Each structure stands twice: as C-alpha cells, then as structure tokens.
C-alpha cells in the first residue's frame, strides 16, 4: 500500500465510522430513557449501528499501514521514551483499538438482538465514555504527537452523535412526522451547539496557553487552503443548519430536516478533513483524493452488507 492510499484509507475510515458509533450511543441512551424520538429514528439508527463490525474490520488496514500513517510508528524517537514504551507503540495502539471496536460491535449485536437490558445499556455507555477518551487520541491526535487536548475525545464523541442524527434526518424514516420531527430538531440543535462550543473553546484555550506545539498545530491549519476549509465546515455544517433549526417550519418538517442533515454531513466531512489532512503536509493532496475513492468504496460495501443482513437476519428497523 502506498503512502497516499494508506492515508486516504485512514481518513475515509474515520469519516465512515462516525455515524455507526453515534447510532450505537443513541440506541443505548434510548434503551435507558425511552421516548418517541428513539422509536421514530430506530429504522435508521439500527442498520447504521449494524455496520460497526465492518468498521472494526477496517481497523486492520490502519494497523497494517501504521508506519506510513503515524510518525511515532515510523520513528519512536519522535515521542518521549516513557510515552513510547508505556502508551504510544504499535502493540498497545492495536490492543486499544481492537478492544474498543470489538466492544462496540458486541454492544451493537446485543441491541439488535433485543438482549440489551437497561443495565447493559448503562454499562455500555460507561464503556463508550472510557474508550472514546482514548481512541480519538490514537487515531487522529497522534498524527501530531506533540499536540495535546484534554477535550478532544469529547469533541469526537459529539461529532459521532451529530453524524448519526444528521444521517437519520437525511434518511427520514417513516416514523419521522410532524410530531416527532421537532424531537430530532432539538437533538440536532443541542449536539450541534456542543460541537461548536468544544471546537471554539479548544482553540481559545490553545491560544491563551500560547505553547509552541499547540500554536504550530493551528498555524498548519490556517495556511494555504485550510483556513477556507474550516470556514466552509463551520458555515455549511454549523451556522447555516443552526439558523435553519431556529425556524419553526423547518423544525416540524421532515423535508426541512433532510436539508439540515445533508448540510451537517457535508460540514462534518470537511471538519474531519481539516483535523487529519494538514498533519501530512505536502502529501495531503494525494491522501485526500485517495480518501474520496476509499470512502466511496466503503459506502458501496456498507449498502451491500446491510442488504445481506436485512435479507438473512430479519428487518433491523424493528425492535
């Protein structure tokens, strides 16, 4: 695998895995709290969560290509010796990722099989909270190991939830009508505000701290086309949907929410590109093109997988 293809695979895999992980979390939350929103969105959330084993399988491609992706895997001297020996090394990276993705896949299987009790759902959310604080640092932040952010895991968790809600809005399952659409609109609005808040506050904290590694991280993302990229991401996936969600007619309309969901998904893709691509410097263009091709292929495989699961495993849209 060439360097550009490996990097494109990582970016496509991160984008592809957001909605399935977020769908699982929403299903676990609904198992505890109940509510008509979960029943209305289940025909979309359940098939999306069923893709988590496919996301876990895709992690193998990341592990195989580690030296092509992460500087610490190619040269352990890029991080402190104690960090390299106790945390950021190939073996522990693979173990943390495998435990996380297999655990998420098991939880999805329990939910889809109707064997997820409230206790299991609560423990599952605790497991997700622990793992989501670790693996985003591994998969994304360690591309530039000198940069640190204590809120990064929480930010990625909100990105995953937002991706799942936006996908549900785009799909507009049959249970989404004028009565349940406002519930989805409220969830979208709250999650969207969370994403914008954490993104802004992370920047403010880094600016206020004025540490060279943190400054270098953001300076790389202000150079060349990246300032326009994040501007488009914030406008398309943040500000415009936010304004739409303040309009009562949009909040009550599945068609209006479909447009909001589409804008949010586009903004999320741009946001993930902004987080990942600048870390690769001059080789970013080839990686971005490869990511588009890989992501297209993953979507096709996902659609075929869902069709097979629906055919041989029953309809996922029902509890």
Helix-strand layout with pairing:
Elements lengths: L2 H31 L2 H14 L2 H13 L1 H4 L1 H4 L6 H6 L3 H23 L5 H15 L2 H5 L12 H20 L9 H29 L2 H9 L5 H20 L2 H4 L2 H23 L7 H30 L6
Q: What is the gyration radius calculated from CA atoms?
A: 19 Å
Shape: globular
- State the order of secondary-structure elements, H for helix, E for strand: HHHHHHHHHHHHHHHH
* Share of residues in strands: under 5%
Number of strands: 0
Keywords: Membrane, Transmembrane, Transmembrane helix
Question: TL;DR of this structure?
Answer:
The protein has 16 helices and no strands. By secondary structure, it is mainly alpha-helical. Mean pLDDT is 88; it is low at 313-319.
Q: How would you describe this protein?
A:
The chain crosses the membrane at residues 6-29, 50-73, 93-112, 119-141, 147-172, 184-206, 226-247, 259-281, 287-310. Keywords: Membrane, Transmembrane, Transmembrane helix. The chain has helices at residues 3-33, 36-49, 52-64, 66-69, 71-74, 81-86, 90-112, 118-132, 135-139, 152-171, 181-209, 212-220, 226-245, 248-251, 254-276, 284-313. The protein is mainly α and 319 residues long. It has a single domain, classed as Formate dehydrogenase/DMSO reductase fold (Up-down Bundle). Helix 1 (3-33) packs antiparallel against helix 8, helix 1 (3-33) packs across helix 10 and helix 10 (152-171) runs antiparallel to helix 15 (254-276). The longest helix is centred in the first third of the chain and has 31 residues, at 3-33.
């Amino acid at each position: 695998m060439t360097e550009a293809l490996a990097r494109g695979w990582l970016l496509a895999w991160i984008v592809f895995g957001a909605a399935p992980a977020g769908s699982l979390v929403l299903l676990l939350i609904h198992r505890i709290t109940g509510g008509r929103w979960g029943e209305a969105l289940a025909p979309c959330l359940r098939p999306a969560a069923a893709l988590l084993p496919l996301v876990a399988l895709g992690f193998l491609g990341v592990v195989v290509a580690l030296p092509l992706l992460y500087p610490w895997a190619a040269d352990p001297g890029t991080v402190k010796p104690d960090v390299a020996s106790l945390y950021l090394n190939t073996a522990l990276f693979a173990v943390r990722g495998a435990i996380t993705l297999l655990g998420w896949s098991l939880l999805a299987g329990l939910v889809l099989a109707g064997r997820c009790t409230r206790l299991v759902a609560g423990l599952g959310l605790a497991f997700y909270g622990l793992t989501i604080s670790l693996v985003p640092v591994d998969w994304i932040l360690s591309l530039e190991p000198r940069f640190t952010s204590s809120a990064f895991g929480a930010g990625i968790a909100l990105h995953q939830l937002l991706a799942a809600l936006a996908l549900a809005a785009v799909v507009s399952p049959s249970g989404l009508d004028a009565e349940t659409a406002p519930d989805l609109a409220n969830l979208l609005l709250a999650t969207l505000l969370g994403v914008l808040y954490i993104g802004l506050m992370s920047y403010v904290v880094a600016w206020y701290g004025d540490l060279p590694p943190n400054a270098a991280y953001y300076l790389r993302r202000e150079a060349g086309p990246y300032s326009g990229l994040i501007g488009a991401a914030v406008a398309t996936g943040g500000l415009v949907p936010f304004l739409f969600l303040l309009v009562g007619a949009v909040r009550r309309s599945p068609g209006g929410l479909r447009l909001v969901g589409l804008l949010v998904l586009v903004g999320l893709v741009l946001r993930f590109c902004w987080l990942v691509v600048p870390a690769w410097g001059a080789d970013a263009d080839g990686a971005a093109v490869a990511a588009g091709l890989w992501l297209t292929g993953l979507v096709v495989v996902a659609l075929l997988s869902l069709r097979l699961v629906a055919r041989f495993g029953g309809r996922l849209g029902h509890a």
